[in-house]
Amino acid sequence: MAVINSNQLRTVRIGFMPLTDCASLVMATECGFDRQYGIRIVLSRETSWANLRDKLGSGALDAAHVLYGLMYGVQLGIGCQRQAMAVLMNLSRNGQAVTLSRALAEQGALDGPSLAQHMRDCPRSTTFAHTFPTGNHAMLLYYWLAAHGIDPLRQARALTVPPAQMVGSLRAGMIDGFCAGEPWGQRAIDEGVGVTAVSSQQIWPDHPGKVLGTTAAFAASEPATCRAMIAALLDASRWIEASQANKEHTATVLAGTAYLNTGRQAIAARLFGQYDNGAGARWTDARALRFHGDGEVNFPYLSDGMWFMTQQRRWGLLREDPDYLGQARAVNRIDLYTGAAEMTGTQLPASSMRSSTLIDGVRWDGGDPRGYAGSFPILDQ
């Protein structure tokens, strides 16, 4: 498959949020993987997911490091004007967390069961923050709370807070807990204001994280550019995981003022799977944040996209069941990903569907999304 002429670099404007899982975008530019495919990635650090969404939709950005669930929310017109979107690849897997305040921890709420008991014993208003109403963190937070018998819409209050403001909001007592990407869970522990109640990989083992997203119009008009972006990020993802030294260098670069602008150690700890929950428990997580995994991380599985729609339906964000499989086939551009995989020698999976068993013991495989969405005991109609 032809690569864009390297003598005429195509500038591509890509937005990102200051999170550890933007690493492949950063290293693609820092190490020059983009230029090997005839493009020059220009990164734009954004302040909120809503701002990033609007810039992506208006064309101010060509593509973005973006929440999986946000892409489907825009595709389906949830809380915004409907616009056809394209998921080009998955950028990460695992590596998010639910953090509870130190005040809750001191009252015995350290995990799901103890939080549920505390909320039964002390029925006051409890406020949790996520990063975007249709996004990954909202859906994972709601799923976790519901798995422990807490209705996130009736028994708690949910707020939308940008990731970088989570720790400050927790310190100020504005929220009692949050779900967000790293390094903000680790930062809450380092600053003594929170404890990790559960990692996202404990909620959904090997769940998809952020994606490389664009509009369907951009994907249709510039397929070669899309393949070049995917290829560059596949190479960067592979490079990050190739050695301990590469991960160390990645943590150092991410900590810089142009990217996360935070302490290197807060990034490095969980990037290497070294977890400290802030309440005495420490462990090495075999399912920590991943970027490549021989391509297993990056493939845009249809079942992953469908899961977010089932949860949006479950919580009343969608008032009717969408065409789950049809929408996933329209959004997840497996054709463009496959072309880039061939360019980079990246292995493809045997199926566009995969299965997982989540924290409540319920298995998800994409086979019956309508039945799955309607099977939960907590469903906001």
UniProtKB/TrEMBL annotation:
Mention any Pfam family matching this sequence: NMT1_2
Q: Does the keyword Glycoprotein apply?
A: no
Spell out the subcellular localization from the entry.
Answer: Endomembrane system
Q: Could you list this entry's UniProt keywords, alphabetically sorted.
A: Cell inner membrane, Cell membrane, Membrane, Signal, Transport
Q: Which domain of life is it from?
A: Bacteria
Signal is among the record's keywords: yes
The cross-references to InterPro entries, in alphabetical order and at most eight, read: NrtA/CpmA_ABC-bd_dom
Concerning PANTHER family, the annotation shows: ALIPHATIC SULFONATES-BINDING PROTEIN-RELATED, NITRATE_NITRITE BINDING PROTEIN NRTA
Q: What is this protein called?
A: Nitrate ABC transporter substrate-binding protein
Q: Which organism is it from?
A: Massilia genomosp. 1
Taxonomy of origin reads:
Bacteria, Pseudomonadati, Pseudomonadota, Betaproteobacteria, Burkholderiales
